[in-house]
Amino acid sequence: MTIAYYCVLFAGILPILWAGYAKKANGFKMKDNAAPRVYMESLKGAGQRANWAQQNSWESFAPFAAAVIIANLCNANPERIDLYAGTFIVARVLYGIFYITDKSTLRSLVWMVGMAATYGLYYLAFTGSKI
Length: 131
Prior knowledge:
- The chain is mainly α.
- The protein has helices spanning 3-25, 36-41, 45-73, 78-100, 104-127.
């Protein structure tokens, strides 16, 4: 399995980590699991921002995962695929950290880096880049 495929796996786990942080930050109790969406919508502060990071992480997952798979199917340069996938993961981790700590400008910058990495994977696939 390539590094990029491990990155897809981690990208699928990352939203769950942000959700866990959101719950922990606001004192989640098992009774809150009866209506978890209502509970998550009631969060404030860092917990609320962690929930928003979770939601955005799910939104970014599908285009990223597809880009990794497509780039591999098109036989693009595996080292470049791994580089772009790793860049995406670093950007998404920083995105969540900056979201939770309310650093909106940095959050937006790393969001752009993550999206650029995703689009870079599509570029590799569409151009058949072997470099």
